[in-house]
């Protein structure tokens, strides 16, 4: 393609700049969407882990309390 005037050069440069700017914006948008998805997955995973840990702790505490109460009742009955 032969460019005969500086006006054509300017048009080509402007078109290339616009295309590059649009591509950069699309890439940034895709990266942001991917990051948001990753953050959502990590947050959900953390919430699930925290809930599981809390459930385990609650179960352990309940078991310990029940065992202690049973031991106290047995001791009181024996004494």
From TrEMBL:
GO CC entries: membrane
Transmembrane regions: 9-39, 45-78
Record keywords, A-Z: Membrane, Transmembrane, Transmembrane helix
Domain of life assignment: Eukaryota
Domain ABC transmembrane type-1: 3-79
PROSITE patterns, per the entry: ABC_TM1
Cellular compartments annotated: Membrane
Any one of the GO BP annotations: transmembrane transport
InterPro entries recorded: MetI-like (IPR000515)
Main location: membrane
Topology of the protein relative to the lipid bilayer: Multi-pass membrane protein
Protein name: ABC transmembrane type-1 domain-containing protein
Source organism per UniProt: Elysia marginata
């Amino acid at each position: 393609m032969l460019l005969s005037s500086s006006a054509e050069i300017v048009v080509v440069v402007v078109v290339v700049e616009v295309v590059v700017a649009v591509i950069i914006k699309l890439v940034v948008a895709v990266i942001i969407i991917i990051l948001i998805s990753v953050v959502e997955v990590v947050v959900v995973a953390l919430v699930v882990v925290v809930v599981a840990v809390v459930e385990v702790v609650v179960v352990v505490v309940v078991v310990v309390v029940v065992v202690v109460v049973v031991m106290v009742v047995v001791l009181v009955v024996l004494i």
